[in-house]
Design goal:
Layout (H helix, E strand, L loop, with lengths): L4 H14 L3 E6 L3 H10 L6 E6 L2 H10 L4 E5 L10 H8 L4 E6 L4 H10 L4 E4 L4 H31 L18 E3 L2 E3 L2 H14 L5 E5 L5 H10 L8 E5 L5 H9 L16 H4 L4 E5 L6 H13 L1 E2 L8 E2 L3 E6 L3 H7 L4 H7 L2 E5 L8 H17 L3 E4 L1 H8 L6 H15 L4 E3 L6 H4 L18 H19 L4 H8 L3 H10 L6
Helix pairs in contact: 2-6, 7-8, 11-13, 14-16, 19-20
């Protein structure tokens, strides 16, 4: 069935709205392979294709975006023992793999395919129907494996000690959401990601505000790879602690002899990313003099390399980030108001991790799976005692600090065991837990019955909040049945905050 241009656009938007787009990374320099794959896996059917020419760019994409299937065109000339690390990284990627190989290299290609734990070994020349069916089956296997892994872990936990708690129903989905490499469960992050997805569909500049370690660059990369510039370059530049001359050279480029030490021409990130995106981190740190050049680029798209009289143009989308409030800097007079208005086409605020503690369990599990795969260690899960400690720790370094902590715990955990309190770092294991405050509670009411009911309501509220409204845990802790707990929640008209 053929579609008109407008029908295609409507169909693509329908696919994006109704289903999750499956990302397929194609690593190949063979035009025949890329043409067959592009015909077999249409955007109309819910596929997003990312093309890479070499291993390095493929591994970078795995760090940037959530990839569901890798189609890896194997070149045995570049796959010797020195590429063991690449092979290991690809084999531990959290997705299915399909390896293709030339017919005359069948035996060696099949061996490499087996060593790298690939899903399927295909022979060239490739066939459209074969690719379409293979990718579909690979995605089905990935989903079945994910559900099997979660259900197996939940079964183990349900038969284990009380410290693992009860598993909430519907946990195959787990309430976990993703926006490329961003993982979250909180309503705060859901709102930010919702705005980011809207921003991604436009070409307007984006200004991201958030403390260090909250994931500003991850959000910027997710916006880029969900925009119509996804197949164009994305370049990043940290603007902090960089001199004006060096920053100008990095972004606008320079010509040979433009300044002492300029021994060759430099293209500059703005021209190198033409048609794509440039991410400017710590944009609040640029000097007032450089703000003028940046403002002119945003207004006119003009690029004048350092030491050159020639003015060029570049079509680049700017995504800027800052860990300081630019509004306050504008009021202080250290940041240009007109530049601020240009940068904040969309303004997104990433909350600190301590303000979205409900994200800590899902982030912890995500990092456990990530680093367990990297080091080849089998970790069954994380105890509820550990999660309680992590959720009540302030994490001044935000998600980056949590990731480092989980990486260390995975490294010291026993093979085939759980991550327990003994694996936590000392600063977290000995950090004080919040006091419930029950000792300072003063019951309300005049009669004994009213005072008892007031105390009971307070205990229920505090316990439900402490256990994140996991009613199974609360009922066990208070010695109630699930039905009895539900009746008391209705009686006191308690609501989850």
């Amino acid at each position: 069935m053929r579609y008109t241009y407008y029908e295609q656009a409507a169909r693509v938007e329908e696919v994006r709205t109704l289903s999750n787009i499956q990302t397929v990374l194609v690593k190949s320099t063979d035009d025949a392979v890329t043409q067959v794959v592009s015909k077999a896996l249409s955007e109309l059917d819910g596929y997003r294709l990312i093309y890479c020419d070499d291993d390095k760019s493929a591994l970078n994409r795995l760090d940037d975006i959530k990839v569901d299937v890798i189609i890896y065109d194997l070149d045995l000339r570049d796959f010797g023992s020195e590429n063991a690390l690449v092979r290991s990284r690809l084999s531990h990627a959290a997705c299915s793999r399909i390896v293709v190989c030339n017919a005359e290299e069948r035996c060696e290609g099949a061996r490499v395919c087996e060593d790298s734990a690939s899903y399927l070994f295909l022979m060239k020349p490739l066939d459209e129907k074969q690719i379409r069916m293979s990718v579909k089956r690979a995605l089905e296997q990935t989903e079945l494996s994910r559900r099997h892994r979660i259900l197996t872990r939940e079964l183990r936990l349900s038969l284990d000690e009380d410290m693992f708690g009860q598993i909430e129903s519907g946990s195959v989905q787990g309430g976990v959401s993703r926006f490329e490499r961003l993982v979250y469960a909180s309503s705060q992050m859901a709102e930010v990601v919702g705005e980011a997805k809207i921003a991604a569909k436009t070409d307007m500049p984006v200004l991201i505000r958030g403390a260090t370690g909250t994931g500003k660059e991850l959000l910027a990369r997710a916006i880029h790879f969900n925009s119509n510039r996804a197949n164009s370059p994305l370049h990043s530049q940290n603007c902090g602690s960089v001199s004006d001359e060096a920053l100008y050279s990095e972004l606008f480029g320079h010509v040979r002899g433009g300044f002492p030490g300029a021994i060759a021409d430099r293209l500059g990130l703005f021209r190198a990313a033409d048609g794509g995106t440039v991410f400017l981190d710590e944009v609040s740190e640029v000097s007032p003099q450089f703000q003028v050049a940046l403002l002119r680029f945003l207004q006119e798209g003009e690029v004048k390399p350092l030491g050159s009289d020639k003015t060029l143009t570049s079509n680049v989308r700017i995504i800027a980030a800052s860990n300081r409030s630019i509004e306050e800097l504008v009021e202080e007079g250290t940041f240009r108001k007109d530049l601020y208005y240009r940068l904040k086409g969309f303004q997104l605020e990433l909350p600190a991790l301590k303000d979205r503690a409900s994200d800590i369990p899902v982030l912890t599990n995500f990092f456990v799976e990530k680093y367990a795969g990297v080091v080849g260690r089998r970790v069954l899960g994380v105890t509820t005692d550990v999660l309680d400690r992590l959720e009540n720790f302030p994490f001044p370094g935000n998600v980056r600090e949590l990731e480092t902590e989980v990486q260390r715990m995975v490294a010291v955990a026993e093979q085939g065991g759980y991550i327990a309190l003994r694996h936590l770092s000392e600063k977290i294991s000995k950090s004080p837990m919040p006091d419930s405050g029950a000792s300072n509670f003063v019951p309300s009411g005049s009669t004994l019955k009213e005072k008892v009911e007031s105390l009971e309501k307070s205990v229920l509220t505090q316990t439900l909040d402490a256990r994140h409204w996991n009613q199974s845990k609360v009922a066990d802790e208070l010695g109630l049945s699930r039905v009895g707990l539900v009746n008391k929640i209705k009686r006191y008209e308690l609501r989850k905050d």
